[in-house]
Amino acid sequence: MNALVALCHFCELHGPRTLFCTEAVHPPSPSPPQPGPVIPGDRDREVDREGEGLTMRANSSATQRADMCEGCRSLPASHPGFVSVDSETGIRYLSHQHPRQQQLFSVVRQACVRSLSCEVCPGREGPIFFGDEQHGFVFSHTFFIKDSLARGFQRWYSIVVVAMDRIYLINSWPFLLRHLRLTIQSLQNTALKVFDSEQCVCPQRAVRMNSAFSPAVFPHQRSGNAARSLTSLTQHPNLWASLHSSFSWLLKACGSRLTEKLLEGAPTEDTLVLIERQTEQEEEMSGWDGAEGGGSNPQPSQSESVQAKDFQFDDGRQEDLLGPKFKSLRHLRQVLGASDFRQLAWHVLMGNQVIWRGADPGLIQSAFNVLKALLPVGCVRAVPYSPHYEEAYRCNFLGLSPDVPIPAHVSSSEFSMLVDVLNVERGCVNPVSDDDILSLYQFNISSANTQPTDKGPTLLNKIDVALSNENLSVEVVSLCLLCLKEEWMNKVKVLFKFSKVDGRGKEDTQKVLALLGATGPGEEDNVRLLKFWMTGLSKLYKSHLMTACRLN
């Protein structure tokens, strides 16, 4: 990550000061040697430049040392600093009191002053974002450290992350906030123990109340108390080495969590929905961490727990499931039979609740893993395995243990389907492989729906043709299904824009459906499918259409 992390302190004698900073130095790109004579002096200067980041000679002049007290200093001028090398990328993480480059020194100095003076959040403790294109953008988190000798018994610090990429820094807000809070809480807890022990020996509040106050001698009385270093406040013998490890890991982890990908064309709706869900989950985790830091420990509600599980199972975890499992849609079709599979797929595409009840959670989860490929990501709301029934508005894929009863209003509804997975009783026969699911289980499918499923929707007819064609491999069928979903998602976008945004009447909507090829045999199923898939559109796309409509 092209950023810099710095710990700053507001000194009572000298104002805002930078205590410790960590920066990432990328290895230089190899360049061919230039012809010409080698001058001995040049070689010495090259070695000197390589060690500039460690010795910090440019930032440790005698004038600067004279302006620094113990509270403003982290490492002595003779200290070489800390270096960590990433063996995979060759990036070096250098830590010292000041950056090694004069330009970075000015940027960090300005970020330090702003974070401890004008750019603070309400309460003076917490995160804030500021910056500009010229001086960089800053994520700052201010906090207090307990000190029995300080004014108000506490000192003010901040940790700043400086980067030139505003979008990257904003997208990293939840990650940075979560991990910086861990570092800050560790410092505060360590300093609090030292503070309590010092107060037990000599309570400073009583001493100050009983001592005579004189404005003339007050600066001289406080001159000895204003210079306590962070090492003294925490009594941590390896404080700066520990901060170097934390800051180096933060730069490496934050740089690797977000990567650029080359997309062929605009991102799909599934990609947008996944990004939105990931952002929401990070914000929820950040909010829970913040509440825990404030002393409370909120428990998410049942609906929040269900939403948090939406689409968390994916094909990447399919291999981790133990026991028998469905490998693909074609495999599921072969096990259930063409007729039962079509009925199951029809309920999935229509948005009805599909319930699997059985004693093998792995088998049920594998069934959901392959069935979710029929729907856009935004339409999938799943509870893989639950000890009690969940309502249809919370999930359209529901896995239940075998002893869970189905409510009467659900079993009699045409908008639900139940698949009971029963164990097959076998005598003393040879053991069977996990792939032979039919020899292990029996599947009973039931639904109150009386509408025929052999006419449509058109998408299901095309999927059925692709799955029944044995000349097509599983990979080809998957790509075919992906193209079909994109085709129908484009139809959904047109219908949403025409009916929801523009507010056209039923007659005009019918003409659009005919233009989209959604009329004819299975027209009713096509319309139901399109309306259900509208719920899978991303919030970004919907807000974009609504904004464009208002501007027009």
From TrEMBL:
Residues 25-48, 283-309 are annotated as: Disordered. Residues 73-538 form the UDENN FLCN/SMCR8-type domain. Signal peptide: none annotated. It is found in: Cell projection, Cilium; Cytoplasm, Cytoskeleton, Microtubule organizing center, Centrosome; Cytoplasm, Cytoskeleton, Spindle; Cytoplasm, Cytosol. GO terms for molecular function: GTPase activator activity. Residues 297-306 have a biased composition (Polar residues). This is Folliculin. It comes from Sinocyclocheilus anshuiensis. The gene is LOC107692552.
